[in-house]
């Protein structure tokens, strides 16, 4: 498996508008794009910082993973996204290494990307998202 880059650092937030206003005021960052991902129950905004995205995630329904995370932990770091050449190949490699997975197969994610999640119990406590490299150029389109 080839990890090619850090794609994103994802942060769970209570209020996306307030958080975006803070990031613009404090750091001069504005979203490259913003979208609602109904399949994951989130609204996301992507802030590009030198080619690595800060992904801000707000829950859009009470049963979403972000809503559950916020209820348990409050706002904060949610996951780390790694760019990989092939999510399918990466999942196969991780299965061979007996790494615990959340997604057994690649699936569509925000921005039309192909993604899969690796369980934090298999990665030393960090939720990891795999993001397919071929999709990287399509952010914001």
Query: How are strands sequenced across the largest beta sheet?
Result: 2-3-4-1-5-8-7-6
Number of helices: 3
Basic shape: globular
Q: What gap, in angstroms, lies between the N and C termini?
A: 28 Å
How many E strands?
8
The biggest sheet, with number of strands, parallel, antiparallel or mixed sense and barrel status, is: 8 strands, mixed
Helix content: 10-25%
CATH class: Alpha Beta
Query: What class, by secondary structure content?
Result: alpha+beta
Structural commentary:
This protein is an alpha+beta fold and about 140 residues long. The protein has a single domain (about 5-140), classed as 2,3-Dihydroxybiphenyl 1,2-Dioxygenase, domain 1 (Roll). The protein has helices at about 15-25, 65-75, 85-95; strands at about 5-10, 35, 40-50, 50-60, 75-85, 105-110, 115-120, 130. Strands 2-3-4-1-5-8-7-6 form an 8-stranded mixed beta sheet. Mean pLDDT is about 95; it is low at about 135-140.
Chain-wise SSE layout:
Elements: E1 3-12, H1 16-27, E2 33-37, E3 42-49, E4 52-59, H2 65-73, E5 76-84, H3 87-96, E6 107-108, E7 114-118, E8 128-132
Parallel strand pairs: 1-4, 5-8
Antiparallel strand pairs: 1-5, 2-3, 3-4, 6-7, 7-8
List keywords for this structure.
141 residues, alpha+beta, 2,3-Dihydroxybiphenyl 1,2-Dioxygenase, domain 1, globular
Question: What's this model, at a glance?
Answer:
The chain has 141 residues and is of the alpha+beta class. It has one domain (3-138): Roll (2,3-Dihydroxybiphenyl 1,2-Dioxygenase, domain 1).
């Amino acid at each position: 498996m080839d990890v090619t880059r850090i794609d994103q650092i994802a942060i769970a937030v209570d209020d996306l508008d307030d958080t975006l206003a803070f990031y613009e005021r404090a750091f001069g960052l504005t979203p490259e794009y913003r979208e609602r991902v109904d399949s994951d129950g989130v609204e996301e905004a992507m802030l590009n910082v030198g080619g690595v995205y800060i992904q801000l995630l707000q829950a859009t329904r009470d049963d979403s993973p972000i809503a559950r995370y916020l209820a348990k932990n409050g706002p904060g770091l949610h996951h780390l996204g790694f760019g990989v050449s092939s999510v399918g190949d990466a999942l196969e490699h991780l299965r061979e290494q007996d790494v615990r997975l959340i997604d057994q197969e690649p699936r569509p994610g925000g921005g039309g990307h192909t993604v899969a999640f690796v369980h934090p119990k298999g990665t030393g406590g960090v939720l990891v998202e795999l993001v397919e490299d071929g999709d990287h150029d399509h952010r914001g389109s």
